[in-house]
Amino acid sequence: MSIVRYSAAVSLAALMMVPAAASAETFDWIAGEWSLELGATGMIAPGFEGSKKYKFTAIPVFSLGKSGNDTRFSSRNDSISFALIDDGNVRVGLAGQFLWKEEFDGIDGLDPVRWGGELGGFFEFYPLDWMRARAELRYGIRAHNGFVADFSADVFKDVTPDIRISAGPRVSLASADFFDTYFGVSAEESQRSGVSEYDPGGGFRSAGVGGAISWKATDNITANLFGEYSRLMGPAADSSIVQERGSRDQFTIGLSTSYRFDFRL
């Protein structure tokens, strides 16, 4: 066999081995212990962001991940996350949210916002054993075509082996496309609703604080009591929807419970 033909044969064999190796690595990653968490959250919150009227809302809790790398701290504000890097002190990965259809209750004439989602990434780290800082950047899918950036810092303390308290500040920013979807008012909507026309830009969305008490009732059952306050800022606060029919001050209080199922693949 000539050197050329021999080299070609070796290259072909190597290329054939790459998919096999990748498949083996993928299988090795999938195999192992997994956890599925299911539950529900009930809360009293504004009917829509910027509303001055409150209503009770129930939403499902869903989380799926591999066991072994237990997250040191998590908040209800965290998007659904999948860590690509996790060394215990730093986590980096993918983040996403499902967005429910939003209607402007009490304001006839404004177009509802379609359901959709947001997809992006997150970065979090622990500057201290009892503090976590987190940032998320997400892009809207179907519901809106803008960017959203959320920043938070939480201090947490285990007052007993089963009870943890936590609290910290939150700041959110967004692009003009996001604000136009949720806070903008077109000329047609203005005529139908009586709310002044508004064409927002991008900038700060809100700033506030949140806290929670978590109770690990059993190894598999967890309950959380939480409360939050945020004040709309920038284009959100300047929106005619907020100025004429709503409120900059937004309060939320709620309770969530979940059950974790452990299984092996």
From TrEMBL:
Residues in the signal sequence: 1-24
Organism: Oryzicola mucosus
Keyword annotations from UniProtKB, A to Z: Cell outer membrane, Membrane, Signal
UniProt superkingdom: Bacteria
Matching PANTHER family: MLTA-INTERACTING PROTEIN-RELATED
Identification of the protein by name: MipA/OmpV family protein
Main location: membrane
Family as reported in the entry's similarity comment: Belongs to the MipA/OmpV family.
InterPro entries documented for this protein: MipA
Localization of this protein: Cell outer membrane
GO cellular component: cell outer membrane
